[in-house]
Design brief:
159 residues, alpha+beta, Glutaredoxin, four-stranded mixed sheet, 6 helices, 50% helix
């Protein structure tokens, strides 16, 4: 008798687990997703100049603290150390949810949050995957991302 009751409760628990799992899976697929956050470009004419360097903070729809930190550090670096290039339109900073923008994810072969530095209209880009290993050390992170941005902007970058 006790074994039969135990089996009944085990079956109920398993059924409950299955139903909850299905509910979460359905909820993730049907839940409204907020629009991707973007940062307006500074002083552009509406057209992206071919020489403009774009720094993308690519992230997943659901972000962990490290994913947020990757974006925050990149934004801080661009806005402080490259303020002149940003203001003149030579540099732009954008965020993109690569899970929603699958063409972007395919173009840059992205499978996790990262920073991408590219020249507008060019197929050349730098995907900075090491931001994950450098996120715990602000200066290492800044040095790594700064070098990629300077390389893309060219030697005339005084920042």
């Amino acid at each position: 008798m006790k074994i039969e009751k135990l089996r009944i409760w085990a079956a109920r628990l398993l059924l409950g687990f299955v139903l909850v799992t299905i509910g979460f899976a359905a909820g993730r697929r049907t839940a409204p997703v907020p629009e991707a956050e973007t940062v307006p470009e500074a002083k552009t004419t509406g057209e992206t100049p071919a020489s403009q360097v774009v720094v993308y903070a690519a992230h997943m729809t659901f972000r962990c603290p490290e994913c947020n930190q990757i974006e925050w550090f990149a934004r801080e670096l661009v806005e402080t150390e490259f303020a002149d290039a940003l203001a003149s339109g030579r540099l732009a900073f954008r965020t993109v949810d690569y899970m929603r923008d699958t063409a972007f994810a395919r173009r840059y072969n992205i499978s996790s949050s990262t920073i991408v530095v590219t020249r507008a209209g060019s197929d050349d880009f730098q995907r900075l995957d090491e931001v994950w290993t450098k996120i715990r050390n602000r200066e290492e992170y800044f040095d790594y991302v700064r070098a990629a941005i300077r390389e893309s902007l060219g030697p005339e970058t005084g920042s």
